[in-house]
Target: Methyltransferase type 11 domain-containing protein
Amino acid sequence: RLMASHGASVFAVEPNAEVLRNIRTEGHPITLVHGGAESVQLDPASLDIVTFFYSLHHIPLEVRKDALSNASQALKPTGMLYIVEPVAIGPAYRVLQPIDDEATVRLSALKTLDVWLKSSRFTQVSETILRYKQIYPDFEGYKASILRVDERRAAAFEEHGEKTRDLFEKYGDHTTRGYAFDAVLRAISIR
Model:
């Protein structure tokens, strides 16, 4: 929505039908498509920028390179691939850890990107570490947000819910907007 609010025409791909139904476009020029980044049909050399925001590590390893290749083929010659991936450190990560310890899969996504880059025509032009606050109204709001990403986490909440609630209380900075958690991201620009 942010890019669309600044005049961009946005083409968004989402593999989870439930998440797709809940995306709010708020009147912006956003085209929503159900599918995976590895298989969605994109016109060659048609996009200025392709972003993977918090998503590369969720793409199955066996099709991750295909997703990167598919996205890169859709870029105009001057286009940019912009990837933002969470780093497995900090309070936001610690709270999620009992439910879904993503350290290995996040590292795997970066390794796949590195291998793919070496075999592509693209070059990494920048890498930036970003820090921001994830804010949730309360533990139930946090849980709902985590389950929206992957409903298979429900069983882990059954097993580790109390521990996760304790970590939520321990690491959350209580603010007027809710509980805030420092999150660390790696932003990579590729041309």
Q: What stands out?
A: The mean pLDDT is 95. The first strand starts at residue 10 and ends at 14. Residues 88 and 123 are 24 Å apart (CA to CA).
